[in-house]
Design brief:
By secondary structure, the chain is an all-alpha fold. It has helices spanning 10-30, 32-57, 67-102, 105-111, 113-125, 135-149, 152-182, 186-193, 200-238, 244-253, 260-280, 287-316, 321-357, 362-368; strands at residues 59-60, 63-64. Helix content is 81%, strand content 1%.
Amino acid sequence: MNTNKFQFPTVAKWIVSFIVIGLVLYGIWYFRFLVGCLAIGIVLSFMGRPMMRFLENIHFKKLRLNNTLSASITLVTLIAIISSVLYVLVPLIISQAMNFANLDIYRVADYYAGPIKQLEDFLHQYQLMPSDINLETLISNKILAMFNMFNITHFAELLLSLSGNIVMGFFIVIFFTFFMLKDAHLLYNFIMGITPDEYLDEVDHIIDNSRRLISRYFIGIFTEILTMTSLLAIGFYFVGFSNVILIAFLCGMMVILPYIGVIIGGALGLTICVTGFLSVDPNIDIVPIIIRFAVVFGIVKLIDDFILQPLIYSKSVNAHPLEIFLVILMAGEIGGVVGMILAIPAYTFLRIIAKEFFSKWKIVQSITKNI
C-alpha cells in the first residue's frame, strides 16, 4: 500500500497552513462581537476560579456543593460586584456630565485671558508657535470639542443605539461565563481534541501555564485597581475634592495600562476635578487645585510603582518592565486602547507557546527563562 498517497509536498503544506490561518483570522474579525463576548467570559471565569475552588472545598460530612451550584453562586457574586460598581458610578457620571454642560467656557476664557496672552507672546517670541495662531481661540476650540464628547444627549443617543448589542452581549457573556466556571475543562477538552497527537504534551503545558499565569494576572489587576481607587479616593477627600469616587475610579482603572495609564488617568482625573470647581466658580484659581491633585496622585502612584506593580507583574507575567513597555506601545498601535489592555495577557500567552515550541532559540530562552 502507498502510505504517501495522501501526503502533501512541503510547499503545499505551507500554502494550506497560510490559508487556514487566514481563514481563522478572518473568522475572528467577522465574528468579533462573539469573540469579544467569549474573551470577557474567559476573563470572568479566570477571576471567579478561586471562588469556585473555595466553594467546591466546602463540605458538611458527605454533603458538597456540586459544580452547577458553585458556578451559579460564583456567577451571581461576579454580577453583584459589577452591578454595585455601576450603581455607584452611573449617577456620578451623569452628575459630572451635567457639570460639563453647565460650565461657562467663555467666562473661564475671559478670566484667564491675561495668562494665556502672556504665554502666547512667549511662544511667538521664541517661534515655538506660528504667529498667525491665536492661543486663546485654539484652547477654547479644543475645550469645546472635548466637552462635546461629554454631551449628555449624544451619550444617551449612543447608549440607545447600542442598547440591543449591550443586552445581547450581557446574556452571551453570562452564558459563556457560567459554562466556563461549571465545566472547567470545557475549553481544555476542545483544544486538546483539535490538537495533533504529537503536540498533546506541549499544548497541555501551554494551557496549564496560561491558566495559572493569566488568572493570577487578572486577579492581581483587580486588586491593584481596588487598592489604587481606595487610596486615591481617601487622598482626594482629604484635600477637599468633590466627586472623589469617580475621579479615583477613573485614575485607578487606568493602571491596567502600565506606564501609559498614568498619563491617561491623570489627564482624565485632573480634567474632571478642575471642571467640577470651574462649574461652581468660573473665576477660581486652578493652580492650587492642580498642585493638590498632583501631590495626591503622585504619592499614590509611587505606592503603585514601588509596592503594588512589582508584586503583581513579577509574580504574574514574569517579564522585564522594558518588554512590557514595548509590547504595550506596539499593541496600542495595532488595537488602540483595547489592544493595550489585552497586550500583557496576550504577550504572556505567546511567551508560553514560544517556550514549548521554540525553546532552542536563544531569544526565546531569554524572554521565557522566568516562566
